[in-house]
Design goal:
8-stranded antiparallel β-sheet; mainly beta; Immunoglobulin-like
Amino acid sequence: MCLIAVATSAAMDSSFQDWQFTTSANPAEPTVATNMAGVATAALRVGYSGAGWIDSLSAFGTQTGLWDLGFQNTDTTNDTRGQVALDVPNPVPASSGTNTYTDLELRVIQFVDGLLFKGDLGFSIPGATNGGRTVIETVPGPLPGQWVEDKFQWRLIPSPMTVSLTITGAVGDTLLDRIRLDTTSAAPGAAPLVITSVVQSNQSLAITWTGGTPPYRVYVTTNLLDGGSWQPVGLPVSGTNANVPLAGPSGFLKVGGSQ
């Protein structure tokens, strides 16, 4: 019989949540989201002299659903800046463990004028590696200043069940329009699945292999041409060996791991 090994690929999952702050709800759920693991939340803490949620400010343009987080007062012994605490259930791969990772992409739209609204946000993400910042777009407002969309990226190793990210407002003042957080979680690809031993005993084959991702399954076919179909033999196994009964004068076997 001919033996064919099948390698496995990494498992990946992602989520998307976009807070447009159309109401004053606090904690706020995303306006639009796709997350099979649950519902994300944004808990907002308004700092010193912050106005909180504002439907619109005509002097700042046509943006709606704004949060004025306030600023740091002159008593610097206490941090009075506003904060946004994001908690996002993470649809980590089924094979999650110490070798998994989650990539975060955060987009923030805020007003920046270089004087009061300087845009120098702070971030707290336990265990994350900073992947950099990119300015995506700037839109001038009626006042001196502009609405700026920044993209920030991080990687978390291993993947947490919940992504917790805290945004701290600028020392001057922070006026937020929108927040979006995307996650992509993945398990690094497993080692290639390789059959290491095949021993015939009477009317069965004892097969062993290494690599791949459990559970495994053995398949058999009698024809590799003309669309011959592979049929499973026995039940899935979590170990790296199986006994397969011999049937017919010839055939082909393969071992596959989970995807």
